[in-house]
Amino acid sequence: MNYSLVIPCYNEEKNLPILINKYKKFLINPRNELVLVNNGSVDDTEKFFKRLTKIKNIKICRVKKNIGFGYGLKKGLLASSGKILIYSHADLEVNPNDIIKSIKLFEKNRYNKKIFIKGNRIKLIKNNWTYIDIFFSYGYTVLNLILFRKNIYDIHGMPVVFSKKLLKNLNYFPNEFSIDLALYVHALKNHYKVIRFPVNFNKNKRKYGEGSSDNIIKCIKNSFVQFYHALIILIK
User: Fold this and answer.
1) I need a labelling partner for 235 at 20 to 30 A (CA). Which of 57, 75, 125, 202 fits?
2) How far apart are CA 135 and CA 55, in angstroms?
3) How far apart are CA 88 and CA 7, in angstroms?
4) 149: three-class secondary structure by DSSP
5) Least confident interval from 36-40, 55-59, 219-223, 224-228
6) Quick one: the chain helix, strand, coil %, rounded to 5?
7) In the chain, where does DSSP find H-type helix?
8) What is the dihedral of CA 160, 161, 162, 164, to 10 degrees?
9) How many helices and strands, by DSSP H and E, does the chain display?
């Protein structure tokens, strides 16, 4: 099977050299494709991407203006050539070894054409989560359990792996992080077998740049935005 790993990048210039080095194991397989999305960055991300043109299984996708994580992810997923899609973050909080684990899980279950694999973040305190991080993460889980009446939890756990066919009938693609929920719910509606596996999502692994939820103001703002999109996903 050929896998496309999509990573939207917004102002991740300083993280990218570390990221590429960490994904060498994934890139060794010539059938694997790493799709890097310049998601409207205003730093020197594009300059770094131009240095990667000699690596055959790296594809660069460009978004002129940053609209959100979901928009950049959508562009990258649709530009991918792999039959099996994976997506993750560029900020180094996701362990690259978990990408390899997710591929092995997919291979193990490949007899089932409808599988949706998603990381489940564990040992949050040990991985440098604050109590505010944990409160909002669990709060979002509780909200979605109430809204969708399904065992949907740790919505933003990564990596995520699924067949490209899943995108075919997806009628709502949020421009921000609610894309995680949209894909998760879409997989459940289409009777995909959801497989969760434990991952360590270490907040201290981010070397440079700012996160989308690294202070309480951002957390509150994101909560309202995600609640709004959850309601839209519910009625779609």
Assistant:
1) 75
2) 42
3) 5
4) coil
5) 219-223
6) 40, 20, 40
7) 16-22, 24-27, 45-50, 69-79, 96-108, 131-148, 179-189, 216-235
8) 100
9) 8, 7
